[in-house]
């Protein structure tokens, strides 16, 4: 009986690790999620910038970001009505895979367009009733943390 319990527990640990790896690779297997990860590579970035760079609707961006959070690849921070996302610290093996993957994307035409587009987006809180003295300033790059 004790051996059967040990086998069941070991199988459960194995299944959990496999599920974790499957989710990790599935997150990297989607073009939109790769684009989002690449945009977060240089630091924290607001959802409005992600939406503008990918030129898609907010629900689609939110679904992808929720998936990335579920897999532990990104973390979020709320600031009023805005949510800012950044890459999460990963274990060394996953970090190496993610780094190599994101480095490989640098030359892709779609990624170059996204990175150009994100620099042109001005997220202006005053449109929503928040005071922001830097709202009129030129477009800023994503904030590094």
Shape category: globular
> Measured on Cα atoms, how large is the radius of gyration?
19 Å
Spell out the helices and strands N to C: HHEHHEEHH
Class from secondary-structure proportions: mainly alpha
Describe the structure concisely for a colleague:
With 145 residues, the protein is mainly alpha-helical.
Sequence-ordered SSE layout with sheet pairings:
Elements: H1 2-28, H2 31-40, E1 45-46, H3 47-54, H4 58-70, E2 74-79, E3 82-87, H5 92-105, H6 109-119
Salient structural properties:
three-stranded antiparallel β-sheet; single chain; mainly alpha; 145 residues; disordered C terminus; Arc Repressor Mutant, subunit A
Notes on the structure:
- This protein has 145 residues and is mainly alpha-helical.
- It has one domain: Winged helix-like DNA-binding domain superfamily/Winged helix DNA-binding domain (Arc Repressor Mutant, subunit A, Orthogonal Bundle), CATH 1.10.10.
- The protein is built from 6 helices and 3 strands.
- It has a 3-stranded antiparallel sheet with strand order 1-3-2.
- α3 (47-54) crosses α6.
- The radius of gyration is 19 Å and the shape is globular.
């Amino acid at each position: 009986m004790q051996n059967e319990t040990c086998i069941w527990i070991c199988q459960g640990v194995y299944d959990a690790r496999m599920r974790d790896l499957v989710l990790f690779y599935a997150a990297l297997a989607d073009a939109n999620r790769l684009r989002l990860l690449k945009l977060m590579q240089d630091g924290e970035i607001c959802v409005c910038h992600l939406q503008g760079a990918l030129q898609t609707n907010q629900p689609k961006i939110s679904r992808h970001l929720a998936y990335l959070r579920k897999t532990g690849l990104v973390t979020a921070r709320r600031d009023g009505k805005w949510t800012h996302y950044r890459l999460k610290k990963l274990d060394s093996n996953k970090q190496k895979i993610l780094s190599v993957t994101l480095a490989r994307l640098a030359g892709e035409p779609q990624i170059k367009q996204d990175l150009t587009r994100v620099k042109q987006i001005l997220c202006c809180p005053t449109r929503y009733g928040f005071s922001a003295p830097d709202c009129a300033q030129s477009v800023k790059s994503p904030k590094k943390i």
